[in-house]
Amino acid sequence: MGLAARVAERLLAHDRRLVSAESCTGGWVAKVCTDLPGSSRWFIGGVVAYANELKTGALGVRPALIATEGAVSQAAVREMAVGALGRLGGDIAVAVSGIAGPEGGAPGKPVGSVWFAWAVKSDDRAEVRTQLEFFSGDREAVRRGAVACALRGVLEV
User: What is the number of other CB atoms lying within 10 angstroms of the CB of residue 51?
Assistant: First the structure.
């Protein structure tokens, strides 16, 4: 059974629905989810927020946070996940922001750096877990690794 199918099985078993907030993966998490027949029972949808303006406008990430921490940061991805959960609905949100390359790396944030956040609705707030991973390879390898990590994280929350 594939990773997305395991996510579907887990979400359906617990009567939960997923939303996504994606930057460097460009909607690939949503694509993998919606490749499965019947995904509308457990996947609501997502936002591909590649530009910072969309991270702030659609997901509620504070512009000052992006100015100080950057879009590829623990704080930004945390706000992306919480914003997706609050604005899109669902029970679980996954957010991804990273540097897929080949350009864009910076000191402390090399190409292949990807931040993840998983937010789970809990009463009137969200419980959030974040994780930083470093992927090697070309742009596609970084993005493919990020999608797999994002889905594995959904299985762990």
Answer: 12
Domain count, the chain: 1
Structural domain of 130: 3-156
Give me the DSSP letters along the chain: --HHHHHHHHHHHTT--EEEEESTTTTHHHHHHHTSTTGGGTEEEEEE--SHHHHHHHH---HHHHHHH-SSSHHHHHHHHHHHHHHH--SEEEEEEE--SSS--BTTB-TTEEEEEEEEEETTEEEEEEEEEE--SSHHHHHHHHHHHHHHHHHH-
| Cβ proximity of 28 and 22 under 8 Å | yes
Beta bridge mates, 18: 43, 92
Please indicate, yes or no, whether the overall pTM of this predicted structure exceeds 0.90: yes
CATH of the domain at 144: 3.90.950.20
Which phi and psi (to 5°) does residue 110 adopt? -75, 165
Instruction: Give per-residue pLDDT as tens, 48-104.
Output: 999 999 999 999 999 999 999 999 999 999 999 999 999 999 999 999 999 999 988
Q: If 0-12 CB within 10 Å is exposed, 13-18 middle and 19+ buried, where does residue 87 land?
A: middle
